[in-house]
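Entry 14. Structure prediction run on the chain below.
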Amino acid sequence: MVTSASLNGQTVLVTGINGYIASHIGRQLLKKGFTVRGTSRSASAGPHLCRSAFKGFEENYEHFVVPDMTVEGAFDEAAQGVSGIIHTASPISFDFQTLDEFLVPAVNGSLSILRSALKAGPELKSVVITSSVTAIVSRDKPQDYDFSEDDWNDWAEKAVRKEFSPSVAYSASKTAAERAIWTWGKENKHAFSLSAVNPTIVMGPPIVFPDSPAKLNETLKPVWEVLTRGTIQPPVGRGAYIDVRDVAAMHIWCIEHPEDSDQQRYMLAAGKGTPQGVADFLRKACPDRRIEAGEPGTGSVPGYGFAPGESTFYSTKALRALGWERFTRFEQMVLDTVAAFEKQWPELIENIQT
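Output returned:
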């Protein structure tokens, strides 16, 4: 078996390196002794990462520009000689207006990295794909359904073909992209392991920041709004969450354990934590801030687990693989996110009671 000890010092390719999840993956890899080769659409992302998230690890970071990941051979050069590939990049935009605009680039982008992996060289031991719980969760399941890695979202594409919705089209694209990966794996002879990570709503402290809070991703905006404006936004999806640092750790575990992770999916969820839950917690943790009460206690249960009668996303398989008892707690995740915001934008953190 290829172990962490034997992989340290080798090179791992991380696509979309300047993204929320990928930047955490990159930093954790660097801290473990790997050389990281990242890709992004622009050349400026490399120097920016070396000045911020990867500061102190510049000598072990390499940057490649991939303007269009759906082009045949887009990752060929970047993949040469690497021991592992973690594919997080996604060419999806919620500005797309048709299902095909979602499906075609999602599928082609996934197949592009796999074709490049075939040409990467004999050093390549594992390829890990960032999928999503949306490739698992179907809205036509009962409200109290217990989702697992055995489930597939067969509802989204049928639904969006009847009535277009960007969010449903996104779910359909993630499902189609992951199915394409597994189909490709069966139809093409390859020596590397292939695995997928399916996180629920990813939250937790960013280490790469946009120009302004207005450009925060949709999972971080609710925390920012509660902290700085005291307002509570509607929950995202079914409210199941996972810390971004735990998501990164799962990807790296797959890289380090190619024999165990081969042909496996890993669903990641720590529990259920909604914007109302964020507000409830921060009203106690930050009593100096003006935070609306909303409907305290609704949308979550003590400990932020899964409530009786609601869908569950128990991640026993992932926890067992990692050797952990539990993922990062909701309260710690929120506190660390607040600390990251306060450090990055201290002049914008107002909302103090007088």
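The beta strands are 11-15, 35-40, 61-65, 84-87, 126-130, 193-199, 201-203, 240-243, 264-268, 271-272.
Filed with the rest of this week's runs.
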